[in-house]
From TrEMBL:
It comes from Caloramator proteoclasticus DSM 10124. The keyword Hydrolase applies. Belongs to the DNA glycosylase MPG family. Its EC number is 3.2.2.-. GO terms for molecular function: alkylbase DNA N-glycosylase activity; DNA binding. This is Putative 3-methyladenine DNA glycosylase.
Length: 201
DNA sequence: ACTCGGATCCACT
DNA sequence: GTGGATCCGAGTC
């Protein structure tokens, strides 16, 4: 299990170092594991794309101001959630958005959560869309507002180093932040090169 | 493979 | 009253 020191660092480094790590989610007796393959950094005070730009603190984003290693899970587009991990020191509202995972373990149960169907009933298209997006992975891991604000140091939800290191990292611009003026061009999105579970090339 | 619009609703202004 | 750190299906090429 990664400890607080792992997250209590520069957000860009954490975003890169999270690639290849495994998210572990225990629910209803099922252990779900997914390898992180795509992340984005949101560096609050200086980042027009972040909910916490200019240190703006609201009911929604107050978890971003907590100490490193908390889960910031927010509701978006009327029907979806996004999962972030809070970084840096308490009071610095920074986080890493988990944009995609590669399913590793508990895949059958992920399909049930995501499609309410058994794996054998799933189409090819549904298979590749299981966890290749920030809200898709939240459905497959059953991450919602009830987990917003918890820390990542219990069996419920944590990240571990499974020793997967052999990959190249692609650095590019973040997705769907057209409103963010110059911040839309910051290369703060990271993904594992050639991994098929990345949301977009 | 690609674009486009609808779904859906809570937090924010 | 507005719009979003998204997803999906329909339509087109």
């Amino acid at each position: 299990m990664l400890n607080k020191d792992f997250y209590k660092k520069d957000t860009l480094n954490v975003a890169k170092e999270l690639l290849g790590k495994n998210i572990v989610r225990n629910i209803n007796g099922h252990k779900l594991v997914g390898r992180i393959v795509e992340t984005e950094a949101y560096i609050g005070p200086f980042d027009k794309a972040a909910h916490s730009y200019n240190n703006r603190k609201t009911q929604r984003n107050e978890v971003m101001f907590k100490d490193a290693g908390h889960a910031y899970i927010y509701f978006i587009y009327g029907m979806y959630y996004c999962f972030n991990i809070v970084t840096e020191d308490e009071g610095k509202p920074c986080a890493v958005l988990i944009r995609a995972i590669e399913p590793i373990e508990g895949i059958d149960y992920m399909f049930k959560l995501r499609y309410k169907k058994e794996l054998k009933e799933i189409s090819k298209s549904q298979f590749k869309n299981l966890t290749n997006g920030p809200s898709k992975l939240c459905i497959a891991l059953n991450l919602d507002k009830s987990l917003n604000g918890i820390n990542l140091f219990s069996d419920t939800l944590y990240v571990e180093d499974a020793g997967y290191n052999d990959f190249d990292i692609v650095e590019t611009t973040r997705i769907n932040i057209d409103y963010a003026e110059e911040a839309r061009f910051y290369p703060w999105r990271f993904y594992i090169k050639d991994n098929p579970w990345v949301s977009q090339k």
